[in-house]
């Protein structure tokens, strides 16, 4: 019995990340909006919420009064990315209390999903994977999921609010298999904003960067030169092992080979990523890695390493750069003990792209809610979805329970200091709260400003950020003259020097038709060619002319395999989707 | 002269065995000490001793929900499943060695070619469901009762047993079943033991039937509990959304430590069973006794 | 009379097991029909488009890819078949050890690799063979090499490296079967040979080896028939060791189906390839069987 399991998840990273990805940790976007709304909130006379009160701090106008207790019911809920250890946490229990619904959680796994779908055994409530698949269409045609229009009218008061109007209209238009009915309800809609710090970027060790005198980073060449200088000054780690400048990880499909594109993205909604050398993420990464190789700082395992291998290298101190700080998390914890300014950070560039921000009505892809035909009580299912999508539910998921984790202070909702400490400390006590464990299921983004004038995620305020600064963050922020790390980037974005997801029409991208089979075949071929072709070019090119010659050869091959055809199809699909928006 | 070459051979033999054993054991030793190492420290490199000795990996696993019950289920399925498999396969194998069995060749081929087809996950699921094996303990032991590979091994072994033994038993008026239980089966101990080892390890390690077809809490196997725990740790890494990644990858989950500790937890019981079965690999002991 | 009655009894006693085999192996074959439709889970076949041999044609159209993939599959399978006598030799050597206690210990310990899952095998391999790994560190400190070796990214070494890993993982475990076979050999044969003055080596060649032959031969046949499936000891091994540098040498049929299937009609395509593989394997099996009849005088199946 051959069962190909468990690894598929990683492989699915391929196109999804580049085309329809929202990003950026949410942050407090509207300094102004918050202030102007706050006085209104405190004046409005609603008593500060008691622990059991249904309504969050509000302006008294729209939130529903406390619901009568509904009969308890248990649903099998299949969720994307959220794991079963969320059950039993404080936030989870609160959801049970507020809705009467106990969720029997099952994490989404594509193999299992296909089997359930084929056998007609889908759980009661699911989140639909619709990117690059025909599941949505198949489920609608096969009557596996039910239309939600009537249910929203009867049991979805919060979903009926204006804030969801566009999202629902979008879903009816693009995610209904042309039936015009509402089948799925998007999650994480709204303004994405910035986070506390930028994880993706030009990563280096801050103390090494200092040592070199904070050199300017204006191009890929600069990046390579800076890394080369760092390697020269620190050629071995503590145990005498050789140190290398950079590497990518290779087990997320083509993500690694495309990674430099995250910083150099041109901002065009559709790009021929395979052959357009100027704008292609693949070719920018290739250029970066080639130049690194020429300087002798490319890790020999660069093209064979998996993500966890990079974590090992980073922790051992033999790697000085990767496209994100994620692999360096452990290393940073150790380095901080060695010195106040030791650790890996991303250097804010005043050019290029920053994969943050943006605002969508489509929300996070692959996670829209649907109720299946197996559900015995769709009305109660809608109760649950309604709650999770609502202002109150979103706030609960990201900030916890009012009165327990956050409270109204002078009429302004604020995280309790001890909870902020808990978050910093991490570990089991923090996990027990359940805060931030259901992010893939909340209706509104962390950064969305609710009717009380404050964001969904109350951790994302400058005050809380200030308490999160460790010595490294502080040193970094001071140097750039900002209050917290991400602000160093935000400066350039606000000044228009750096593009963000704000310029990418993510909603149109999410509305593009799924590619037909022959186009998909071409794409598989192209991915294969480029995955094998670029490492060869990077490793074997002797000099710049050689590089250009090999590059041309590969581009010819890609064109032969249909690169242009693929690109033309994408343009067409984009234009068609765009037309529907106007 | 003979003695010298024999000695040389012995030295060669022992050397080769020791070298190969080291190659086999060191990796296992490595993961043993890794499992006792602090997950963060282990990333820096583990060689001969645990780095930052800790029992936290094991305690986390033993605190998982349903551990004891699932352990019992796994033991139950292993024992019952293996016994059933041995009984069915050896009887079937014996029957197929009898030339007088109608359609013998066809039946045997009917069995053997099953090793070469596999229609896929979905047809398997649907079949099991339609046969009523969803959420049913029988799912764990019935499908594995007749395994073509084991039958082949058994048949080959049985065919090599001296004909005389069977014939003399038949003379004494014994029927097929009696011959099987009194003559064939006892003499086949070595190969039966082999199959017991394979079948029990297979049963112990199987999780996918549980994963796809059994949701009943009372029927969860140890393997599935551990598998779920592991995939939960990996889940964040497979998220296709950048915000989600920022959220999750920044935390200190180390799937490697979990994976390795699970291997230890799962392998140790098997290591205990194996020596118990080794005593059946005795050279032709029974054979000589009966002949005499 | 008695004989015929017992023949029927015998058949009847076998029928339950035939039914079991049928239920769990043949009934699922209804799924082969998916290969002829543009099957999407959730949509009943009656509403699905019938496409005939489309997916079979697809596979053949990608000639270059298919050829490359088949080469890898066959190469890796053959290397693994070539290595199969090693299990036999190992079993014989084990058997010849004077100390039974030592034999049991070695036997148990050498089966350990079998229990290590492929993902961990990869981690171990990375720990050993990566540029900063143990082997390179040792070799560099000894001064034998200047630059680290990158065997895991070395295309030319792929077949050998993968086969070596397969051997490491399955040698001890595979020897179990042969040890059982040796245990089934009549002890008296050995005694008689000793009396006749046969030396150790002669005893091995004259008694032990022929005693194992039938088992070895049967397994050999089974392995040859499944030559399209193995390819680097199966999907998992292929999956964990796959990277862009060795891709062209390591990618076997099952992995190819998986990779292509991620974006394209995977179930139908996978089923089509599965059908082809099964038919070819069964054909090979009967061919080898007929060959065996000619060469050795009796057929195995």
TrEMBL record, chain A:
Q: Which Gene3D superfamilies match?
A: Periplasmic binding protein-like II (3.40.190.10)
Q: What is the superkingdom listed in this entry's lineage?
A: Bacteria
What the entry lists under InterPro entries is as follows: Bact_solute-bd_prot1
State whether keyword Signal applies.
yes
Annotated TM spans? none
As given in the record, the signal peptide range reads 1-26
For region Disordered, the annotated ranges are 33-66
Question: Which controlled-vocabulary keywords does the entry list?
Answer: Signal
Instruction: Please name the PANTHER family in this protein's record.
Output: ARABINOSE-BINDING PROTEIN-RELATED (PTHR43649), DIACETYLCHITOBIOSE BINDING PROTEIN DASA (PTHR43649:SF12)
What's the protein here called? ABC transporter substrate-binding protein
| Species of the source | Paenibacillus montanisoli
From TrEMBL, chain B:
Q: What kind of membrane protein is this, topologically?
A: Multi-pass membrane protein
Membrane-crossing residue ranges in chain numbering: 12-33, 71-94, 106-126, 138-158, 179-201, 258-277
Q: Which organism is it from?
A: Paenibacillus montanisoli
Q: Which domain of life is it from?
A: Bacteria
Name recorded for this polypeptide = Carbohydrate ABC transporter permease
UniProt xrefs under InterPro entries: MetI-like (IPR000515), MetI-like_sf (IPR035906)
Describe the location of the ABC transmembrane type-1 domain by residue ranges. Answer: 71-277
Q: Cellular component terms, GO, for this chain's entry?
A: plasma membrane
Where is this protein found? Cell membrane
